[in-house]
Fold this protein.
Amino acid sequence: MQFSDWIVFMGSNMAECHPVGFKWPMKAKANGATLIHVDPRFTRTSAMCDMYVPIRSGTDIVFLGGLVNYILSEKKYFLEFMINYTNAATLINADFKDTEEGDGFFSGYDAKTRTYSNATWQYQRGPAPARVPEAPAGAQGQSVKGVNFAQLIANRLPGVPKEDRSLQDPNTVFQILKKHYARYTPEMVERITGSPKELFLKVAQVITENSGRDKTGVFTYAVGWTQHTTGVQLIRTAGLIQLLLGNVGRPGSGIKALRGHAQVQGATDISTLYNAHPGYLNTPNARRAHDTLRDYILTETQPTSFWSNTPAYVVSQLKAWFGEAATADNDYGYDWLPKITGDHSHLPTFVEMSEGKIKGMILTGQNPATSINSTFQRNAMRNLEWLVVLDLYETESAAFWKAVAGSDPAKVATEVWFMPAAHIAEKDGTMTQTSRMIQWHDKAADPPGQARSDLYFWYALGKKLKARYASSTATKDLAIKHMTLDYDPDPADVAEWKHKDEPSALRIFKEINGYEVATGNVLNTFGALTADGKTAAGAWIYTGALQLVDGKVVNRARMTPGKNDGWVSPSWGWAWPGNRKQLYNRASADPDGNPWSERKKYTYWDATAKTWKNVGGDGIDFAPTKAPGAAANPTGIGIAFHSGRDPFLLKTDGKGWLFAPIGTVDGPMPTHYEPWESPVKNLLYKQDRNPVAKFWDVTGNKYNEFGGVQFPHVITTYRLTEHHLSGAMTRWLPWLAELMPDLFVEMPPELADEKGIANGDFVTVTTERGSTEARALVTRRLRPLTVDGKRVYQIGMPWHWGYMGIATGDVANNMTSLVADPNVTIHEAKAFTADIRKGRAR
Amino acid sequence: MATATKGMFVDTTLCTGCKACQVACKQWNELPMDDETAVREHRAFTANSYDNTGHLSASNWRHVKFVEQFSEDRVDARWLMMSDSCKHCEQAGCLEVCPTGALYRTQHGSVDIHQDVCIGCRYCVGACPFGVIDYNQRTGRVNKCILCQDRLEDSQGTACAKACPTSSLTFGNVDDLKAMAAERVRALHARGQTDAYIYGWDLGNRGTITQGPNKGAAVADMEVVGGLNVFYLLLDKPEVYSLPSSPQLPQRNMNPSAGVALISAAVLGVTGLAAFRRRRMEAVAASSEVSS
């Protein structure tokens, strides 16, 4: 970011929520960059920016779509980048219908199931290569024995996508995009978002005038973009802008996703998600063609992207999990894995819990008692027979049964175990931060009292389960029975510590990294992984974090702060995949492999050495010796299907997708829908809300009337520098507790005057779900907006508080509802409606 | 041998108001919460922007100020933040009035307190033009920022500057910091931020306030009380940051009463302490010669 010429913070309050990383934007500012903050509130981030632009929460797609329209209609796109590196010239199926024709619906919508079929969103393609007859598949449990995956994948190659590089064909993505955003004019942006047109146009000028060969800029976002019923598409809109302006894969470019906490990236890589196995391999699903390992692999493997290597990643993962028990004769234990049957993410799980369908829960690193629609979640927890909480302190969730939580302890039958947990400094391990960088940390001190590491908890539990199932022959027990679980520490490594039975984090890291089965040697690159059971790796993307150098294992996740290896710092931690700090960096060179400009030189083709090189030693995110002029091979599998100028290895056509034929369930292009709860109707389409958003029509989760008058104000929730998440790591710390002691609600003086509220007063904020009491913080940092000629007030509330700890307070999430984005089931806590009155709630 | 004078340059244009300096200060110096009961009983919330600690005190040696400057139409919109502490003045009022020598000038040029010599007379509290020193009810002595004297003796900078993520606080030799500050003001002026000037030393900068109620007013670098070893880059008049525009040392006007103070000191039998102070200063001087 220090090399950015402009930075737009939007959906992010970086100075407050990522204060340490904020030094890089400040460096960019010192270097002459323009910093812009677009946000419902003037925050500490706005204070550091050159420009602040107010916006109504939940209307970001209009603002960003307005920028797309500006770029397209004013011809501000970086033509050479766009035409070569994106799918702008690709032709889409002639049956595709845009939301302009469907008044808010794309073609393929089924009103009965509230889902889209993406059949009409596909590329027009030439004929597919001729198919050859295939031998019949083996039986379940024997489906991959002797299979040649390369042949099977080649037999599934599609035809080459059709293009019109003149961009004139009405079916080109470029023309579709132009039509789609034509009504997102500066006037429409002002009417819907409340952002003054002049400020919007100034942003448009800054980002377009400072992009191109010589200049680059970034968008920086966090959960202010994700936590919407349109969250995924919202972020995609920024993707469109950056692809059109050529701000991808280059120094000072991109879209910076700031994670909600330090290890969120790691928690998705080594997945704690229900629908992904480590390394972004989909969890076997009973509703997909995943019956056998062969079915699973052929369903999941994309023949024309880097994902063509899926068989090696899947089989190596099964070898890592089941060790010697996994063989070609038993499909490497694939059939022992449970299959998912639907959405088992947080919100639907708690709905099931409220229905009494879930008996027990192990809770660690989460505090649902103060989470979305917290009253609903606390009530749901009362249906549990047992609850185990591992945490640093007795959190609100561990105490959900107490009177202070609004429960009658006599009526809660749940048996609760609280397991004191070790803090990060009290255990070895890694964190993977927002730049995909794995960082190793050493244990610095013994945890106090009976506190133990979470690794110990899971390891000890796993061993007990294995002992219990050791003699079982039931199929359902085989996964536990055969699971590898051998991470006992080297006695020398724990000699100085209190507990001698803490599992070795490094051994687990080795299993994740991968090793050669015959020798046990760590593997240096995922290129070495095979689909024949000779290699094991828990997560292919982490392969190479440990490396065998001169017969010794080097942990590259360790930081080497003393080593001055330039601004790219390849020795500072290890970024997956293959230590590539800047993804898609092939795009930092022009189609011929030369730098776009000397100022933005990064990865380039050395024609003499016939290899790609990088100015700072970054990993090349491309086939290292594939020449820029290399032609695409229509019968080649994987990235051989792409030409030497297609930078996006993980895409089926090697292009950046302005139009997404697959991958999103709510449309191939971002479209504005109002938040699920909004005081105003959608001014762009008859369809007000995301037609495929996930909602739960259950008791205790009533939604505010859409466009109603009972809850007229827009409310957003957020975090402060002084506290972290639900406060479980901060409200117990005296030094932080006193800095932000109480829950407050920020509101503009204009609203406070109307309601007779004085600064510092107790106020009550209500929705259909419940009420939250807070202190009023009346400030001109918030302002009334004019939306379609009507005055709209926005208020805001941090959600750090709860009823336990030193600094206690009411729960902001008493007011939020279970409603979510259809792609990833993220809730919508950043934009909903509420009413506010003077006085205490309880 | 005296070492170069150490201090800090506080560039308020880089302050994000994160308060990491406040926490780092408390952690290193092992300072307690100011008032835990008030927090537990919900009396600690001030509703004064994001400032809930209010002022410097015996347990808050550092304090981040928040100043909201927003016109009714929000055309002017500025949120100023400033991390405040003891300035370690060249002419330190506290040090001059201290009857026991508990307050003393270190070999780094900073002003430290011998806690075991302080008698809690509180003369220094009134003598500080910045309201930095506070009487500690628990110990019966006074406290303030001591520029992390123990860290300095181990050739480390201050804990607050170490924790500052944006380099709003920079620790170093005051001469180097002055050069850095002059360069920074020049760069800001070149960028159109003409309200930047230095509070503490006159480095020759002159400018005009660009935003807020004082828009259009002239500002200029100012040297105060002989120069501040912890000095500031500000964007508005000192009063906006609750800093005095013309700080004076009260004892300059109170020469006759100084004699009274000395007599009282004698009556209280402090001469023994003074002798102790002499011995201690000699010991400190000896040890610093060894280490430098």
Notes: Residues 6 and 487 of chain A are 48 Å apart (CA to CA). Chain A is about 20% helix and 15% strand. Chain A has a mean pLDDT of 97.
